[in-house]
Amino acid sequence: MNQTRLAYERWLILLITLLAFGLRVWRLDVVPPGWRDDELINLLVISQHVLDGDWAFYYPDASGNEALYHTLNAGMLALFGANEWGFRFLSALLGTITVPLTYALGRKLFGATVGLLAAALLAVSFWSLMYSRMGLRQVMQPPLTLAAFCFFWRGLMVQGERLKMKDWRKWLSPQSSIFHFLLTAVFLALGFYTYFASRGVPLILLAFVGYLALFAWPLFRRHWPGFVLMFVVTALLAVPLVVTLQQQPEAEARVAELALPLVQARAGDFQLMAEYTRITLNMFHSDGDAEWLYNIPNRPIFGVLGAVLFWLGVVMAAWYALLPAVESVRAWLARRKRPFPAHLSLASAFLGLWWLAGIAPGFISVPPASLGHTILAQPATFMLAALPLALFRKPFSASRGPLTGYGSRFTVYGLRITAVLFLFSMGWRDAQDYFVNWPARGMTRFLYRSDVQEAANYLNVHPDVTDLGLSSVLAGPWDQLALDIDVQTAVQPRWYNADRAILLQPSLVLAGWPGPPQFLPEAYTLLAERPSIGAYQFYEVAYDFPPGEAVCFVNGLCVETAVYDPITGRLTLVWQVGEALDLPPMPLISNPPPPGVYAGPRLSVFAHLLGADDGLLAGDDGLWVDVTYLQPGDRFAQYHQLSAAAGTAVAFGLYDPMTGERILTVDGRDNVQLDIQE
To answer: Is the link from the previous residue into 506 a cis peptide, with omega within 30 of 0?
Structure first.
């Protein structure tokens, strides 16, 4: 090869890689616009296992997670701390590495044009940016797969080698095909420890080896010992994971949960699988991933030009992959020796098998067209989109396809212009959608807790605000952790659900996220002098409840007032923190938790409507204020919706939902009763 051209290629891929890196770290603290449960669980629960010395090949947390990504991210967390760099920088690096690896493999398969264009498309793609900028393990699958495929093709292209067992020392030479097949096995196995979809990657190579056996027998015969060794070593390296999964088969409940179309197909009903196949194939040109978490709903991967080029690439790859079968039939009919397939046919067959296997999870799992489930197909997708531009521009002389012979200067310039337009149009579209449009959407902001992050930013520049309440859905500890990660002051937030509770002390609250206060909205006075923060607004809270007889519990909580309305069936309780609360330990646990591990609250309020003979007529248990953040002197009220049925008394108290054990009052009672006045 011309050394000047090679140097030009290297400089060009370096610039593309630097562009990719810049796009993956630019404004990493702003986009995504907050923190998702999955990220927080991955880092603060699963990676924390590693930091705590709890090493494993597989963690059952969050429906099951392979360990490799979390182990590496634990190092990032230890290095940078709990921030956007500790949480997301590993993904940015992996997403960046995927770009030059795409070039390297694309070049081996189809030449420099495909390699460079596919790498550039990947560098600017919304799909890659999405997973390269959040702490999810899926992003590790493409670079490991690309590395495995690069070594596989290097081994496949070794010429004139027939190593025998007695030559085993030569196997470890970089000039040996066995050496590269062994490295292929290493990266295949590493994929097993990253993401469950990687278990299908060896099947791609197995199918391709079968293709070689059918249409490229001399190549298969030369390398079959290396193929066998590659699969055997891959299987051996997977043994620790297999043993681990056999010991905890319930850990992969999520995989079975997602495979609904496959379950129905096994029962003889293929309707759902057919529908999911149609939807997944549409994701490239019309209807993409419908999840707000990872896409602008239904946004396709390509615009019009990209979709045309992509599907043309699919047709061309299919043609060249099937060409050896056509030639074999022709040779059989003519009673002549069939020709050895061109490199283009072998490369096209490999790319087609890879892409089909990569999108197959979209056919058999929920939801269809998922960008995460189909991430294995990501580099292959952009190679297919680049393929027509390369084949029209520089046809492979050894091929006999219908698209050869278009090497005119006019065509070359036209294709160059098309490639530039494709790259810039996709780059502009995808960058605009990812950095501007997607994070500004209301549902995106809700799912990523953008308002919580903006509240943290406000508190960071107003250190005078030290005590306040914050409304949230209280679905778990993740709202609180999202704030704790970003806030840098000594603020003491009290979290509560404004649908069922109201914080009375401290009286300064930020309310409005995820919706306006529903319980006693008349108690909120808007503080116009303070700015709104996303959906949040500052309020002063004050409400006079009728006085009652205080009853204190041994854990430090006291009931000031209990009011029951027999007409509406509503019980309102006003609580005060009398002293520092004595609470059971509650470690941070993933959602969903590992099998058999309790992840609910450790303190709740029960409220029972009693009838004659103390029979239970209705009940409503719950605690809609996060007690872990409460301080002595804090006051809050909440209501329990019972029944308007005629009852004789209301009983309430505290208990531990994990054990069912009731918390006693200081005078030894396990409940407080309120007689109903007729």
So the answer is: yes
